[in-house]
Amino acid sequence: MTVMEQKRVTYHEETDIQNTLKLREILKTMPPFCMDYFRALGASSSTRTRISYAYDIRIFFQFLLDQNPAFRDYQMTDFTVEVLDQIQALDIEEYQEYLKVYRQPDERVTTNGERGLKRKMSSLRSFYAYYFKREMIHTNPTLLVDMPKLHEKNIIRLDTDEIALLLDYIEHCGDSLTGQKRVYYEKTKERDLALVTLLLGTGIRVSECVGLDVEDIDFKNNGVKVHRKGGNEMIVYFGEEVETALKNYLEVRKNITPLAGYEHALFYSTQRRRIGVQAVENLVKKYAKEITTTKKITPHKLRSTYGTALYQETGDIYLVADVLGHKDVNTTRKHYAALGDDRRRKAASALRLREE
Asked: What is the third-level CATH fold of 11-144?
């Protein structure tokens, strides 16, 4: 019998496997009836999303244990689906208040702002909707409570001159370093420059960036295959600056011997493993703070920088939505089609109140 070559497991496939195992462990700590909901959720959501929902819904049951006298003698796994019909709108309002500041079983104090509150309430609404739709419960008090209101925040992004300053700093800051800092800089310079240039030049998410394999780069067409949220794959194209930065890094990469299992990763950590999201966030923060002290720049802010620049250059909100991988163009419009300061200034001289 011929032994066929084992299929290579991609970063995203391995991540899904690990997330699936993690979700199973979380569900063991929750009421058994929750299993039906998460099984159904699997058809329309990623493993990462299901883990977030599991944590959110587990907090709801923890709230009932901590705050509701009717469940004083309960354990988490004692709850049955019938308990959902015992909850009233007032209980949901109290839960919203609880979420603002609460103490976890390990005594850690957790807080939630507007976005955290809305996400957890959305999770609970989805949870209730599943059992209500299947007539396993007769009430849905989550629909009787208003969702938290979100206040829009200004988009934080780098200006054109700041982009140039950031890339120049990464390229030349080693001139002022000595000793071990200089050695470390020289070791990571081309990688860091390629990473930041790629993020700025394509607008891909940091999670998409760290998941890239070297085989995903196509220099013939200057495109990179990214694995989008939801599991879709897409080719995102890049320009000459990104091409140059990637090719320079790949020359350095040839001399790196990765640890077993990481041979295909595009970007390596100094430990010769696939670089992680936290490491990319740290290096972006490290360089950006030397350029601006008034803006908190993260990889997501580099994505915002790209999206804003692309919209200002093309005026095509549908193109921006497509390249950024937004499923709903309204998400893009909300973030990138707002009037900028320069356009607001034009409004000041656009109308003449009296003829000269």
From this structure: DNA polymerase; domain 1 (1.10.150)
